Amino acid sequence: LPSPSLLSSLHLIQVDSVQRWMEDLKLMTDCECMCILQSKPISIEKDEQNELILSSQHSTCDNLQLLLKRAWIISTELTRIAQKLEKNRWQRVHSMTVRVNCHVRSMVNEYNTFTRSSSEEMHQLEKLLIDKCSEFTAFTERCLQTEDKEILKSMKSCVNETLTTIAQYFGQLIELVLTQEAQNLLRQIELSGSLYITESAISSLFSLAQEGAHLCRIIAKEGGVVALFKICRQDCFRCLYPQTLRTLASVCCVEEGMHQLEKVDGILCLADILTDTSHSEATHAEAAAVIAQITSPHLTFTQHLSSFLENMEEIVTALVKLCQEASSGEVFLLASAALANITFFDTMACEILLQLNAMKILLAACSDKRIVDTPYSRDQVVTILANMSVLDQCASEIIQGNGVQLLMEMLFEKSSSGNPAEVAACERVQQKSAVTLARLSRDPEVADAAVKLSCIPRLIKLCRSPTERNNSDSVLVACLAALRRLAVMSPDGLEESDFQQLVKPRLVDSFLLCTNMEESFV
């Protein structure tokens, strides 16, 4: 069956089931028509637009989306055939095999209608796949005419083998098609001197990259990162820099993209863009997005970070300036996300931030609801504060910038929409603000400010009330750690029961007590 990487590349946006059916209906109708006409293509008469023909004059991007949707349907059908085969539902297996046969023929016809040229290898694969589908359909029809269970049992292994072969040919064909389309787009980007053609090709490449990591690997292997950085080094394409950098950020989510970035000195190019004041804010913001992508702490490959360290000081300086001068919440989010990621892999970054008065700039930005307007932005800010708080000098900066008040407010972070991503961001804000308080409260002045702002009652509430922390264990652990640090500095701020249950026992015992606590206990 198709590999997980292929299936992930053929993903569709999750929508309401009725809406999905409406979208797929056109494909299904076309499939049935093709079946009736023995898969003979329907010609377009003059200017008449036949609704059953899906390969009408769309853009390359539209045609690729159509191809991916058809491929996704075929992948789903192949998986369902395997499931029905396991249950020996031969009638369903045969009817679904007929449907797959029609979909495969339609997909091949559609692609050959809009593609400019196909390789000999692709034609051979298409023939192999179509022939194997025809053979599969005939074979399952013979199975329907047999009632002997022993014969069916022996035929079942042959059906399974044929199904596996079809899935293999199908996967190879889709891989080849997507590779060819990536090559065509990259050829346009590299050879065209036209602004319009280059912009169109980059836009199509970006759409392709949005289909998943597998597509990004194909683009990277075909030299996509090299071609895109070449655009970013030509002044005549300055107006395309934001779009080009946005595409780079998508492609560089995979290891192959990172390797290419390293080979073409991509980090030096990004540093040059960020430090060039003649570029627009949009260009700087998209360059920050690429930096955020390649420095993500979630990435397991870090070979590129050696060259990053060489340019880190000027990159950090430019990002702090971008945060300070951001005209919108989106620009601030991209710049602060890049800074947050950078602080994870080198403490030198935190020292540079301290020298640049970044703490003061970030705290001031948080008071501007126009700039820091979402939990996602606050998550980036508190991440930077948490990572900087390991430095002793940070305590005085926090006091001067009224940072303890901000951390206290962050302990109340709640999602207004209930959106899962936003809820998760709110949890991270609560957790990291508690971690920052715990680290900074080793300084008596910070601890005293926290006590005066009633941080202790809020931390107790978060520990004892699961709904306050959205049942998050990470928030609970951080709050217990912060509470214990403040209790040392101000033991009179706790009631005896709180001390006995939340401070005195081992942290793991207090954790277990709080995770098993009923809401009515509060």
TrEMBL record:
The record, for Pfam families, names: Insc_C, INSC_LBD
Task: Tell me which residues make up the Protein inscuteable homologue LGN-binding domain.
Answer: 13-58
What are the GO MF terms of this UniProt record?
cytoskeletal anchor activity
Q: Name one GO biological process term.
A: regulation of asymmetric cell division
Q: Which top-rank group of organisms is this from? A: Eukaryota
Q: Which SUPFAM superfamilies match?
A: ARM repeat
* Database matches in InterPro entries: ARM-like, ARM-type_fold, Armadillo, Insc_C, INSC_LBD, INSC_LBD_sf, Inscuteable
User: Which segment of the chain is annotated as a signal peptide?
Assistant: none
GO annotation, cellular component aspect = apical cortex
Domain named Protein inscuteable homologue C-terminal: residues: 70-522
What's this protein's name?
INSC protein
Originating species:
Poecile atricapillus
